[in-house]
User: What shape does this take?
Amino acid sequence: MQFDIIALSFIFVLIPLIISYKLNIGIEKELFINSIRAFLQLTALGFILGILFKIKNPLWYIPILIFMFLYSAYIAKKRTKYSFKVAFLSISLATSIILFTMISLKIISLKPYEFIPIAGMIIGNSLNTYTLTIERLKRELELQKELIEAFIAIGASIKDAFKTMQKEAIKAALIPVNNMLQTIGVVAIPGITTGMLLAGASPLKAVSYQIVIIYMLVSINLFSALFGSLFYLKQKAKAF
Assistant: This one.
């Protein structure tokens, strides 16, 4: 590892830490701890991937995926302060659908250096979209409680009462991926393309692979928002 470059790059964390302290924003401790955590996690990841990339039997992917699902659900529960089970089901179902489709269409293979990084990317995006969806739904239910009760009072079903909020939550959760689709290749060169270019791949090959990844992210974001909202609202319907 190039520890000298890593040490120099820490200035990009140090500057926000100083600004946060001077302006009394109060996030400097969290930023510092998370920055160190990111360094340790990525360093560990480098060693772990060196081992995982030697896997010959794809059955070993199952415990790896389960661990990733469990950890993502744990993080989702911490962020949303909501059900671990709902988070696990939403993320694992959405991820499984996308991975199965990509393998079936031979977009990726079961080779560890393809499957594992793509699976991690899918789960990470699924986690982000799930948390955005749940947070939006929680806020909507708090603000629209009287409207929901009015719907029920006139004979509408709970499903109909929740439908508008579900649509708005899904739209809100998909804003980041929509922004990405609009700006990619114009405002920003995405990470996959940049990495492949730095590795010496031809620009067209790098861009082609990036397009596949971008389209995959559209689906994983939609499925995560859809499953998350369905499971969440199903549980909340029991409270009315």
User: Anything to note?
Assistant: The chain has a mean pLDDT of 85. Residues 136 and 142 are 10 Å apart (CA to CA). Residues 1-52 form one domain. The chain has two domains: 1-52, 57-237.
